[in-house]
Design a protein that fits this description.
This protein is of the alpha+beta class. The protein folds into three domains: about 210 residues, Rossmann fold; about 80 residues, Elongation Factor Tu (Ef-tu), domain 3; about 100 residues, Elongation Factor Tu (Ef-tu), domain 3 (Beta Barrel), CATH 2.40.30. Helices cover about 15% and strands about 35% of the residues. The chain has seven helices and 22 strands. It has a six-stranded mixed beta sheet, with helices on both faces. The chain has a six-stranded antiparallel barrel with strand order 7-8-14-11-10-15. The two termini are about 25 Å apart.
């Protein structure tokens, strides 16, 4: 589904928020939900009571997303909070992510499925190191639509000069990344200026409000868009009298589309076959597209199981055992080269070792570090792994399913890192 298309159903936009501590991310989301009338009465009553308990004179809109006790007591965001709302134009899924550097892993997790990033900046402070960090993470996750909200304009007398100065610095920053669209909005989340309604205090700004921009922006899909990919999750054998000979391969389409009659290549065997049917909830489909969970039957009886990959056309996945990737390290235990880990790649799972740390990213300065290659919790680094069997993959920028991995500690089964294949 193309975002922004005029279908009989609403398009869906997933976006994430990021920003330095106290920049007002949670307040902005609260204002967006409050002014768009997307808060239920019982939620509103709870919000009023919670604000009173915390000694707030007015309703604290940040409490809508900051639900953990520590978040409310400290006035910060710690974990990712997801919120869903809809307007007559579009449906939205918001990921409110933390701004602290020690919660980088949470931001990476929350932003991994986003189409667009809303990055907040305090108008009093301008572009900070954390602005660089959040912009880099958005680029790392291939988010090509950025909206910079220069917040707290009420605290700088709604100055157009200050806004223009910050915008000029952000334009220079964005020139370092592969972005499709960048927008700059002067807002006050606390008072609602340019969030849902245009600001009467900033008549010099002629652009859209944040909500209007989110409702109308058209997102071009870059990842998972063309090359047909279907990771097999399980084999369906009912062995009933009605479906005695049925053998279906179930999974979710991760790229492109599949139709009955298509010739496919099956990995890791490299064998070819033809699709005879595509089933979904008892119905026969003429086509399965990205995101569809289906069962595919083939013309040939082949040895296929969980972790296999169907592909078609000339653009076949890459094959390798030595694989370079960017990783965000999640675990308190540091990375150890030469140690065996498990790598989970879509529905496939194999053992691997981390051969080398090629560099560590200083995302506050957008510089590669090679002098200190120790990788600990929340660090982002470029590494090379060696798997015991070949993996069949695309780059993360082409397909965020076949191009992403999760690294797991063998003994504890803890998820210790997320990786994006380059």
């Amino acid at each position: 589904m193309e975002n922004g298309s005029k279908n009989e159903f609403k398009s869906l936009l997933r976006f994430t928020t990021a920003g330095s501590v106290d920049d007002g991310k949670s307040t902005l989301i609260g204002r967006l939900l409050y002014d768009s009338k997307s808060i239920f009465e019982d939620q509103m009553d709870h919000l009023v009571q919670s604000s009173k308990r915390l000694g707030k004179d007015n309703i604290d809109l940040s409490l809508i997303t900051d639900g953990l006790r520590d978040e409310r007591e400290q006035g910060i965001t710690i974990d990712v909070a997801y919120r869903y709302f809809a307007t007559p134009e579009r449906k939205f899924i918001i990921a409110d992510t933390p701004g602290h550097i020690q919660y980088t892993r949470n931001m990476v997790t929350g932003a991994s499925t986003a189409d667009l990033a809303v990055i907040l900046i305090d108008a009093r402070k301008g572009v900070l190191e954390q602005t660089l960090r959040h912009s880099y993470i958005a680029a790392l996750l291939d988010i090509r639509y950025l909206v910079f909200c220069i917040n707290k304009m009420d605290m700088v007398d709604y100055s157009e000069t200050i806004f223009n100065d910050i915008r000029d610095k952000l334009v220079q920053l964005c020139s370092k990344f592969h972005t499709e669209e960048v927008h700059f909005l002067p807002i006050s989340a606390k008072y609602g200026d340019n969030v849902v309604e245009p600001s009467v205090n900033m008549n010099w700004y002629k652009g859209s409000t944040l909500l209007k921009l989110l409702e109308t922006i058209q997102i071009k899909k870059f990842k998972n868009s063309s090359e047909a990919r279907f990771p097999v999750q399980t084999v369906i054998r009912p062995l009933s009298s009605e479906y005695h000979d049925y053998r279906g391969y179930a999974g979710r389409v991760a790229g492109g589309s599949f139709r009955p009659g298509d010739e496919i290549t099956i990995f890791p065997s490299g064998l070819k076959s033809v699709i005879t049917s595509i089933d979904m909830m008892g119905k026969k489909l003429s086509e399965a597209v990205i995101g569809d969970s289906v069962s595919i039957t083939l013309a040939d009886q082949l040895d296929i199981g969980r972790g296999y990959l169907f592909a078609k056309g000339k653009e076949l996945p890459r094959q390798a055992q030595d694989i370079e990737m960017m990783v965000c390290w999640f675990n308190e235990k540091p990375l150890r080269t030469g140690t065996r880990y498990l790598v989970r790649h879509y529905s496939n799972e194999v053992s691997c070792i981390i051969k080398s740390v090629n560099y560590k990213m200083n995302i506050n300065r957008l510089e590669k570090e090679t002098s200190d290659l120790s990788v600990g919790v929340n660090d982002i680094a470029n590494i090379t792994i060696k798997s015991v069997k070949p993996l069949y993959f695309d780059s993360y920028k082409n397909n965020n399913i076949t191009g992403s991995v999760v690294i797991i500690e063998e003994g504890s089964n803890d998820t210790i890192a997320a990786g994006m294949i380059e």
